[in-house]
Amino acid sequence: MKPELVIVTERIRQRSAATRAAYLARVDRLAARPRGSDRLGCANVAHAFAALPANDKLRIVAEKAPHIGIVSAYNDMLSAHQPYEGYPALIRDEAGRQGATAQVAGGVPAMCDGVTQGLPGMELSLFSRDTIAMGTAIALTHDVFDAVLLLGVCDKIVPGLLIGALHFGHLPCVFVPAGPMSTGLSNDAKSKVREQAALGRVGRDELLAAESAAYHGPGTCTFYGTANSNQMLLEAMGLHVPGAAFVHPHAELREALTREAVRTVLGIARNQPRFLPIGRLVDERSIVNAMVALLATGGSTNHLIHWVAVARAAGILIDWTDFAELSAAVPLLARVYPNGSADVNQFQAAGGPGFVLRELITSGCLHGDAASVSAGGMARHTELPSLDGGALRWQALPAASGDTSIVRGAEQPFSASGGLALLEGQLGRAVIKTSSVPADRHVVQAPARVFDSQEALLAAFQAGEMECDVIAVVRFQGPRANGMPELHKLTPPLAVLQGKGFQVALVTDGRMSGASGKVPAAIHVSPEALAGGALAKVRDGDLIRIDADAGSLQVLVDADIWASREAATIDPAQALANGHDLGRELFAGMRRNVTSAEEGAVTWL
Predict the structure, then answer these.
(1) Under a CB-based contact definition with an 8 Å cutoff, are residues 326 and 8 in contact?
(2) Distance between CA atoms of 428 and 602, rounded to whole angstroms?
(3) Do 239 and 229 form a contact (C-beta atoms < 8 A)?
(4) What gap in Å lies between CA 520 and CA 441, rounded to an integer?
(5) Residue 208 — φ and ψ, nearest 5°?
(6) Rounded to the nearest 5 degrees, what angle is found at the Cα of 32, between the Cα atoms of 29 and 38?
(7) pLDDT digits (tens, 9 = 90+) for 243-284
(8) What are the sequence ranges of the domains in the chain?
(9) Domain 421-593 fold
C-alpha cells in the first residue's frame, strides 16, 4: 500500500482512539441485547406489529425470524427518489421468500437542490442532512429491527441516512440505490445555453426547453455531482450490493439488485456467521476508502463537509488536511462532468465504479481488506453484476478501460494527484476542486469585488459592473449565517466573464458542491465571516491571490492596514427579515449551534 495512505489512516486511528473506543463500546452493548420482540413488553410488541398479517406476526414472535426495517426517502418530486415508490412491496416479497419479514420503519424528507437553487429554500438544504439523520433515528428508535435497508440517493439524503444509521451502529445496514436517469441533453450543451441566458441572448422558453431536455425522467441527474458521488463513496465503503450504483431504475437488473440487497442484509444479520453491524463495518479504513474514491473521481466538494460528519457519527475524526494529503498521493482516474464531458451513464459503460476501485486497490491506494456487506469483500466491488438466465452473477471487468477519455488505469491517470486541494492563508482554510479547472487557471490574482449575497453579485453582473479581472468575494454564506447554500447561480455569469478573457475566480464561505465548474472557486472558507472569519475584513479593490498549486489563499494588503481594519457585519434587520419566511425560522436553532464547515457543519454535538 502507498505509504501516504498508511500514514493518514494511522493518524486518523490515533486521533480517534478515545471517541472510537467509546462508540464501539456502545455498539457492542446494544448488539448484545436480546431481540426486540423478546426484549420489549407485550404491549410494545403488539403496537409494533399490529398492522402486520397474522403469518408475519407468527414469524417474528414465535419463529424468531429476522425483521428488516426500511427507511425510505421516497417522494415523487425528486426524480432520483420517484422509483422508490414500489420498493417496500418488492422488499417485503423477497423477505418473505427468505423466511423473514419487513416493515417501513419510517420516511425521511428529501429536498431537491435543483429546485431550490438560488432561492430561499436552499438555505435549508445543508440542515436537511441532520434533519434526515434525526428522521432516521426516529424511524429506528422503535427498536424492534434486526437489520435495516436504507433507500436514498441524493445530496444530503445519503449522508443523513448514513449518520442516522451509524447512531444505531449495532444494526446491520445495506443501502439500496435507484440508479441514474437515461442520458438527455448533454451537460456541455446545457451549460452553454445557461451562459447564453446569462448574456440575455436566449429567453426563458429556450432555457426551459434545454433544462427539461437535460432533466427529463426518473433517476438521478446524470452529472457527477453530490448525488452520484454519494453512490461512488458507498461502493467504496462496501455499503451497497456490489455494482448497484449506476444501473438504470427500470432495468431488469435493478430489481435483481434490490432483491439481492434483502438477501445481503439477512446474511449479515444477528445470529448469522457474518454478523456485521454498520458501526463495525464503517471503520477508519472504510472512511479513508471513501475519501480516496472521492479524490480519484473528482467528486463533489460537498463531501469534504458531509464525510467529516459521517466519520464523526462513527467516532472517527478527520479533517481537510487528511483529504489534502491523500489527494497528493491518489491519481485522478475519472473525468465525468463537470470535470469532463461524459455523464454517469457513459462512466458506467466505460467501467464505472468497479473499474476505478480495482485500479485503486491494485495500485495500493485503497484498503482492499476493508469490510463489505458482500461475502466477497471489497474484491466483489471491482466486478460487474449481470443477469444470467434470470440469476444474478458477477464477472471480472475487462483489463482495459472502455473509454480512456472517461476512465483510465492507475498506470496512466489523468493526473498524478486527486481532484481537490486545500487552500490556507490570511483568509482562512478553504477547498478548491482542481479537477474541473484547467491548469492555467490554478493561480488567479485579481482585485476583489465584495458581495454579501449572491443576488448582489448577479445584479452587478447584469449592470455591466464586472467587465474586468475580478475575484468575487461572496461572504456571509456560511452555516451560521444562512445555512451555507450552494451558489450555482453564480457559475454562468462568472463563466461568461472568464470566457471574455478576464482573470476570474470566486472566494466564498458558501458551497458550490459537485457541480463546481470551470471557474476557480475557493469555497467553504473557514472560519466563516459571521464567526470571525477574515472574509469580513476584505474590501473592494483588495488584491487577492488564489494558488491551488501552492495551496494558498492570500489577501495582498499591507499588514498594518489589515490589522487595523474592522470586520464588516450583517445588518441585523436584513438578517432577521431574510431568515423568517418559507420555514427558515424553524432552523434558527441549527444555525446557532452548527459547527464550522471543516468540522462537518454538525448540529447535533
Answers:
(1) yes
(2) 19
(3) no
(4) 7
(5) -65, -40
(6) 125
(7) 999 999 999 999 999 999 999 999 999 889 999 999 999 999
(8) 3-32+65-182+217-396, 421-593
(9) Glucose Oxidase; domain 1 (3.50.30)
